[in-house]
Amino acid sequence: MQPDFDKQSQRIEFRQKRNQFVDALSSQDRALAFSKIPSPLAQFLLPGKIVAGYIAIGSEVNPAALLAQAHKMGCDIALPHVTSKTAPMRFLRWTPGDALVPGPFGLQQPVDDAPLCTPDIVLAPLVAFDDRFMRLGQGAGHYDRALSLLDHAVAIGLAWSVQHAPALASDIWDMPLDAILTEKSWMTL
Question: What is the CATH number of domain 7-188?
Fold first, then answer.
């Protein structure tokens, strides 16, 4: 194995690429990116479907506009709720504009007693993705464990185009995504 073909080295490399890319964007380009639901994603966003998103941290893709539009289309919205590195991640119902509380790892998440739900569509943050649609996350495995239990959910990674790698290090428990949405394109296998 090459020294740079391990998850930790790849996390460092792709966080740096993502940060540099986002820092170089104009305020107009930043505001326009991910501001409208593209038609390939819209086909999944039917009234009554539960769409899980997240609150962006740092240079992650911000799905706030997509979640607000999905809510206006009649979808219910959920956000991840994490209590520790090893505890399973839950998805709790949330409406855009509802209060959020601080969670571990700098997360902003719904209050502990928000209703538990099972997403139909999961918009997942990531550090990098590859040609096999494998997702490199932050390293705690929360999304891989959650996606392994959500057999029928459509998992869509949200990423900047610079987060693409031809191949990433992966383990047998890593869960592939069904699609990737970047500021430039919608990709499916």
Answer: 3.40.50.10420
